[in-house]
Amino acid sequence: MNALGRFQDAFIDALYQGPADDLAALTAQPGFAVYRNTLFKGCVDALCDNHPAVERLVGRAWLEAAATRYARQSPPSDARLLFYGEDFADFLGNLDASRELPYLADVARLDRLWLEAFSAVQEPCLERADLAGMSATDLARCGLRPRAGVRWRWFAGQPIYSLWRYNREALPLPEEIPWHGEGALLVGGPAGVAWQPLERGACAFLDACRSGLDLDSASSLALRAQADLDFTALLGRLLGAAVFAPLTLPR
């Protein structure tokens, strides 16, 4: 590495309060603190903007304080701050201040899934018409691959999707929310990200599809996870939500 490269690396380390003995004279200047504070403010603002449901639950001041702690120990590795905070949900889950909010980390995970769905590469989707003329046997042997902009997750034991949706949409929380597990489906597209609740068996089905199983095997796993699942209705709902990429035909 040349001298300029070494200087740039040392400068970045110094901004994040890392050791920079060779730059002691530079970092002691008052102007350097301005650079450092601007950098951390950008990180904190990005984390808050990337987690709107979390912010509505805890308030801006609380989230800014948590984001500041996170930014000081986990500086960004990508200049695109849209992607900053990949493990921020885990960080929130380990904070003493969030122990009375056991759902907060999972709400943050849904905010993160929204970002991933929003920023994913756009792909064509499987249409119902594409299945016309296929026999049940041929269809059962096909693989249904979720598109790049599709995210889903099952949250056992807590109504994470409901908590996330009410806060994401800035809606008043109901007086009572049934306290049970919920799943969520987020689908990114040209018009933005759409979301809807997803049952346990549906999440198991999409997990199986992502792993490359054919439709027959994936549906069996879905019904094993949820015996009362109406699989025909589920498949129609997922097709309508543009979840799948065009068919992968068996060889």
TrEMBL record:
GO molecular function: DNA binding
Species per Swiss-Prot/TrEMBL record: Pseudomonas panipatensis
Ranges of residues in domain Putative DNA-binding: 7-92
Top-level taxon of origin: Bacteria
UniProt KW keywords: DNA-binding
Pfam families: DUF2063
Protein name (database record): Putative DNA-binding domain-containing protein
Entries under InterPro entries matching the protein: DUF2063
Record carries keyword DNA-binding: yes
